[in-house]
Amino acid sequence: xxxxxxxxxxxxxxxxxxxVGSFECLPKWLNCIPLITQWLWLGLRHGSLxxxxxxxxxxxxxxxxxxGKLEYFRCMGELAKSHTADYMAVQNTADVxxxxxxxxxxxQGLNFPVVAKPDLGWxxxxxxxxxxxxxxxxxxxxxxxxxxVVLQRYLPETGEAGIFYARSPGQETGTIIGICLRSFxxxxxxxxxxxxxxxxxxxxxxxxxxxxxKPAYDPDYVPVCGETIRLATIGSTRVGGLYRDGSExxxxxxxKAVDAIARDMxxxxxxxxxxRFENLEQLRAGKNFTIMEVNGxxxxxxxxxxxxxxxWESYKIIFAKQRLLFKIGDASRRRGHQPIxxxxxxxxxxxxxxLIKLYxxxx
Length: 363
Known about the structure:
31% of the residues lie in helices and 17% in strands. It is of the alpha+beta class.
């Protein structure tokens, strides 16, 4: 049996040489040291270590931490909503039933498959493609009680991008500051080796074997020569996904489309739109893309993780993003929006990390 997520050929970012970039190879604690050092310097310079939390006043902590996916959807006007995949929220209380949930799904035009994900999430943890009622029941059973689940229309488009946007408060138009093209974890068959064997032979794919991910493939299946098997619903690097810098596709047409959406969201100034699309030419033209979710000031400049960049080039991109966050936060503070306290930021961070460990494995 092949994977339910077998990739099509409509959009396949280049990964003939799916290397692990220099920046990715650094231990997480080590690559954070220069970023934390710059953040401390910017905080001292601007008189607040949490200043970017002022950047998006309508969102919890401006989107740094503790912000839910539903907050962004609720900030949307009609234009922004029309570009967003249909969704519904379910609080996982003791009395919630799958039958009631499926009935609500039908009423709101949602059909299987859907994507289930935590409202308060991060890095794809707890995100699963749900095929039927039985899988939905399993998801609810393993999800933390009284926490909110977002059920969203599954988007079959094979292209996924994170579009980074920024607009200073009071500025008439905003700008796309970067685009990350995500390639899903995948292996290509040779007609000899099984999926499990192909994973072992791929340095990047080793990451898919972790306790917080339940792979969506048959490990014993032997794909024919040239057949591509997609291994996961999510495209995160933590499960073998590949990030490429696609900023060259930030055309005036795409910028105009994204800016109109961002300005249709209350007090939204900086963040990332995660979208699905079918081909890059349509994306460049600002057409036929669908928003999965929006992230705020805490969204990392992950296009800097492109393996083509040296460690220093990656840091330059991320340093520039952090400077921009403080600049926008400062402009928002001048308009009366005060940053949150450090203690509140720390409290929300640890609560989010606690929940991540309780979520069902992604797939």
